[in-house]
Specification:
With 381 residues, the chain is an all-beta fold. It folds into 2 domains: 3-231, Tachylectin-2, Chain A (5 Propeller), CATH 2.115.10; 252-380, Jelly Rolls (Sandwich), CATH 2.60.120. The protein has no helices and 28 strands.
């Protein structure tokens, strides 16, 4: 990459792009022709935001490879001012910052192994010698460390290639520098994209796993798309394995154009997702239902903001077909039946709703007959 953007959200559904905050050609020490700004991290301390990023240096006197720099701002969206030199004594990628309850800051990074060192109060210099974290898997690539603490347990999470694809694993300790004990897998290997990289945060009393896939670039997995799913803990503090979804997180207002192709669940037969245009993947996806009783489910739709009376569906069908909209589960109450006409072009149809309780519901779209219907979005009025 040549630069970094910052996005913000109040609800994890609607996001604002605040633009570029750091670019390779405005960092004094970075090789501005490398296009190799990799995974960053940011942390707040003493009224300042510290943004850490790896990149190759234009001066190779101290060797080739990656160094880690810092840019500082008064606000999370900038203006970030890069420091003139990278952090001394650090060589590697994937910086991660953690501040413990006693105020001590730590820097984690990877370079074949995973390293940790204390940081000084200024967040710009090491306050201890770098240390390789022992007791992690020895075979296979390890990178992308991310540390967090919960109920006195320190969780060191990291991608690990045990076979040929990265999976997300974690180790635990009672100290941020270890020793750590390998505790399990957060997310299994994913097909189609050999890498994964994670951040884990608590937001409004819920924990979330942010990670990536190649959704928008299925034939080139070096371009990644951000995903997020809810994360849960067992009573003993171990992490429940996260099953990746396209739905992700957040609550969607019923008046929005609900992209049901970003689904929570779907039937094993008769339902599929495809790009509108394989040559323009940023054009998005469509849902295809082609067997009677095939269905797709989109969780957490908020109907509380209005007394909704009708539903609009943008769809295409060369056979015509009938869609049932159900609440909460596949055999839940039907609150609309939508007749999709036989057409050769995409059409928006509008049908009335039956009365229902205006709460947050899971939305199920089910094909009633043995036809073929393609769906772009669903919206309520």
């Amino acid at each position: 990459m040549e630069d970094y953007h910052v996005f913000s959200s109040e609800n994890l559904t609607d996001w604002i792009d605040h633009g570029v905050i750091v670019r390779q050609n405005n960092v004094p020490w970075v090789n501005s022709k490398a296009y190799a700004m990799w995974a960053p991290d940011c942390i707040y301390r003493n009224g300042k935001y510290y943004f850490y990023f790896p990149a190759p240096a234009k001066d190779t006197t101290n060797g080739r490879g990656f160094f880690i720099g810092v840019a500082v701002s008064d606000k999370p969206y900038g203006h970030f001012v890069p420091q003139p030199e990278p952090i001394k004594g650090v060589r590697g990628i994937d910086p991660n910052l953690f501040i413990d309850k006693d105020g001590q800051a730590y820097l984690y990074w990877s370079s074949r192994n995973i390293f940790v060192a204390k940081l000084k109060e200024n967040m710009l210099e090491l306050d201890s010698e770098p240390m390789v974290i022992p007791n992690l898997p020895e075979a296979g690539l390890k990178e992308g460390p991310y540390m967090f603490e919960r109920n006195g347990i320190y969780y060191l999470t990291y991608p690990h290639v045990e076979d040929s694809t990265e999976r997300l694993e974690y180790a635990i300790s009672d100290n941020p520098m270890g020793p750590f004990t390998v505790a399990g897998v957060i997310m299994d290997e994913k097909s189609g994209c050999w890498t994964n990289h994670q951040s884990i945060i608590e937001f409004k009393d819920q924990w979330y796993l942010f990670y990536h896939h190649n959704d928008l670039s299925p034939y080139f997995d070096k371009n990644r798309s951000i995903r997020a799913d809810s994360l849960f803990f067992n009573e003993d503090g171990t992490i429940q394995k996260v099953i990746p979804t396209l739905r992700g997180v957040g609550v969607t207002n019923a008046s929005n154009k609900i992209q049901i192709d970003r689904y929570s669940l779907k039937s094993n037969e008769g339902s599929s997702i495809a790009f509108f245009d394989t040559l323009n993947t940023f054009g998005g996806w469509k849902t295809i239902l082609d067997t009677a009783n095939a269905w797709i489910q989109y969780n957490s739709v908020d109907f509380r903001s209005n007394k909704f009376k009708s539903v609009k569906v943008r769809a295409l069908s060369n056979t015509g077909g009938t869609l049932q909209l159900r609440l909460d589960k596949t055999d839940g109450p039907v609150f609309a039946e939508v007749e999709i006409p036989k057409e050769t072009e995409w059409k928006v149809v509008n049908f009335p709703l039956s009365e229902f309780q205006p709460e947050i519901h899971n939305l199920i779209v089910l094909l009633k007959d043995d036809r073929n219907v393609q769906i772009d979005w669903v919206s309520f009025e």
